[in-house]
Write a structure and sequence with these properties.
Arp2/3 complex 21 kDa subunit ARPC3, mainly alpha, two-stranded antiparallel sheet
Length: about 200
Amino acid sequence: MVTEGLAVRPAGVIADRLPGALVRDAALVAGGAALTGAAAQIAVSIEPLSPVPLSGQTFAVLIVGAALGPVRGVAAMALYLAVGVAGVPWFAQGSSGAGAASFGYVVGFVLAAAVVGALARRGGDRTPVRTVGTMIAGNLAIYAVGVPYLALARDLSAVAAVEAGVVPFLAGDALKVLLAAGLLPGAWLLTRRAGR
């Protein structure tokens, strides 16, 4: 305790002076980025089908966007992007920087988090059917940035970019969408029960 005249106030640290919501939001943003970085390490090369590895990071991006909403989700993916560009090897297969063929997908994660977060805020993750639609929209956002970048980075035609940057991932994307369709509505059910 610190005494100021007759008044007594508790000692503390700087973090004690920050509003609770700000600290929580910062922790959620950092956690979302870290979860994506960890999921990116679950990766398998699928060359020669694609120079982009098959990884768990897209699943993490979609879950983070839905769980954190558009603002915190975008902040988490922007942090993931910025830290990876700065050299931390937490993109797929331990890569970093903007030189990888898959870098456009990482940029697309920011857009996907915005799309998925906005749809989740409107109830797009409350039922399995709505969650499927939300996750498909998120995947399309990732492809909307990733495929053109891949075409430019590898000097591919539009058709070749789709063949290398979309087709090999469709089965995995379908599995991720189905997992999310079970996970997110289930999480909502648990939170409703806990709130009673």
